Amino acid sequence: MRQKNFPAKRHSRPRQYIHRTLALLGLLAVAASAQEFKIITVDPGHFHAALFQREMLPGVADTACVYAPLGPDLTAHLNRVARFNHRPENPTRWKLEIYSGSDFFERMLAERRGSLVVLSGNNQPKLDRLLASVRAGLHVLADKPWIIEPEAWPKLEAALEAADQHKVVVYDAMTERFEITCVLQRELVNDGAIFGDILRGTAAEPAVFMRSRHYLLKETAGVPNLRPVWFFDINQQGEGLTDVGTHLVEHVQWTLFPEQPIDCQRDIQVLRGSRWPTLLSRAQFLQVTGAADFPDFLQSSVKAGQLEYFCNNTVSYTLRGVHVKLDVEWDFTAPPGGSDTQLAVFRGSKARVELRRDKDQQYRPEVVVVPSAGEMTAVRAALQRRIAAWQPTHPGVGLEERGGELRLLIPPALRTSHEEHFSELARRFLQYARDPQSLPAWEKPNLLAKYYVTTQGVALARQGVLQPAVH
Fold first, then answer.
1. Which residue segment(s) compose the domain that 180 sits in?
2. b or e along 122-154 (b: 16 or more beta carbons within 10 Å of the residue's beta carbon)?
């Protein structure tokens, strides 16, 4: 058979087809990786749920879904998103698709009209919903706390294992990682020339001490911000340590051992806990919830006409041998001109590094370095070097010496609000959702470590002696 010799140019056409096909496949792969996410908000019972939509997010569809029972929590959420859409500066453009049937969660799982689930509300069903969402192949951004009782621990481990199996991301809303004072304190504690080595401390004089004081009644323009009645049920909301206390436990381990995995069974020993109630009259309950009387599910906590709300806790524990003590306190309302207060103290061999938010600081968080005896000159010089090195990343940070203390001067441009932290958190979560393998390996064990401390601390507190109630 006679062989035909084709000109060389005839061979280029098949190659062009192959190259074009490969290029098209590459474009399709890029398009698939850049596919828009769509938010699904489930039963939003806390204003944090709306804060995740405070601004439009890159790669997230303008249309978002809301699945929730009909009631005041849903109404409040819709109003908050509407205010974002209608604000005069930088308005958002969210379009909400709402389902409010009693089977809202089952309907959400069946329809799966999005890929990102936001959970922020009643803490009792939160973990079940998180686990079911993960098993349905959905990424989950969940507000704290994920668990409020130690009995839920196996389910928490199951949820994290399911996320790995389904290659989705579950992320805890730890917004204080984006607060500039927390960031600066963390960097100072890990600067040996300034801080030295962390002291071990004792149970009586811990190396790390934190106190967080909040108020149940808060107002905007003289109008109370109403809380749902279930907020005052510790079986639904959790006690103070298992709720806002998660931020304190997180701050300790995130600061002392940055990006290091913590083994809760090996590295942590919970020593003791305590609890005591804040007492609310019916008039106060009406003022903070809008409900004229205590609901049936709270009647067992009503004593002599007052609600015993167990929202105050302390816990003492060791973290890799370092003694830590945390106080979480709630009172009904702040004194005139007052606000929430915060104190976070880390004691090193060369200096204490403190984060303070109190009346003396005009209720604005500040970072203060208190050198140990004989260390002022060396610590001041080291701190000046650190501040100079910060200028590319933290421009404008300065230093003021006052009464034996070295105070960081933080310019307004570096200070972001609590609401803005949620936007930063959402962007970080999206980064991980686009590439689940990029989620740091230490996140999972450290999340477990955090909830180990909070739940074990409350369990010990319930076995102990009550402290005096707060009125």
1. 176-224+231-275+312-461
2. bbbebbebbbbbbbbebbbbbbbbbbbbbebbe
